[in-house]
């Protein structure tokens, strides 16, 4: 068996075209007896963890000395390495090797070109990096905090919250720590509290230069990376924090800030304006990094396309009635305050929200009892997406999603927290649109909505 595993490993590592592995999805399609979501052995747990992280947009490296597990990883296009290989790639320390120091150059000998000195960041670079880190923290923490507060306290969360939104990075952290007992256990793991306390103390300092800035970036990266496991929308911010932290710790120059653009449904950048929440700058849409190289399943694609459409619509309507929208959105002039359309969109968002919530709440029921509701949810979501695409002036799209596809995606154990968070965000958008409708029908002072 050891010889066979080694042979398979060498063939897969060299990408031998004559040897092809069978993925989990292919195995299940040919053998209905295989469990759809159960993992009987530890290897399956590790493999599914890697696949889930990759599906959320993260780059995954599986480090293990188990060649059988590495074989499974390579079959699923997961990069693998042993500890020795990783150390060699990173240029680990050469233990036991003594190096003779070079002789001192004579005075009359020309000096050889020295290595370029490690670059130190200017005060402007450090200030810009701190501002970027704070902006990423603010947006990430605000998104997660509002969703988790609504989950913990329901519709009453605005009445009990320690500091009402909109939050900045400091007030968001203060709010999280104040409500820690109620929020702990979901996205906010106990291990994050010390890092959050330390970040809050550093933010109270007027400056954070050199080592302090490096520590701030490192702690922010750790917190946001953990939250990204539950909220995949944070992937772009996590990647940027990683770039900044790597640059300052390795003595590289500060990497330029990526252009802020919004990808359309077709994958092309929209020539629109992106509005950031709160107090964000409005920037002309440019190019954005392409999505991960894997193709999501049809149900995931439908939901991934639907959410930004709903968010953009609610954001534009909120702007037209003078209300603050909780998420970043794209300004689309074609989204007008046509009350006939607003009511139609609101009705369909309500249906989609209720069907999705019902499916998540009934996850323990027999599967055959849920297929009908799943089909209805798919049809409602497709109709809503097509309506919003038409109103936005975007090209039409098709989604070949079955009720079975949607059930597999919504009820997968690995996606439980992600789906619950997504539903809470749709509820938040639904409530925002309802607030806008009420504001148009019966205008009241803005303060009345925050009480």
UniProtKB/TrEMBL annotation:
Listed Pfam families: PIN_4
Annotated ranges, domain PIN: 3-83
UniProt name for this protein: Putative transcriptional protein swt1
Signal peptide positions (record): none
Gene Ontology cellular-component annotations: nucleus
Span list, region Disordered: 272-297
Membrane-spanning ranges: none
Protein source organism: Amblyomma aureolatum
Lineage, opening ranks: Eukaryota, Metazoa, Ecdysozoa, Arthropoda, Chelicerata
Coiled coil: none
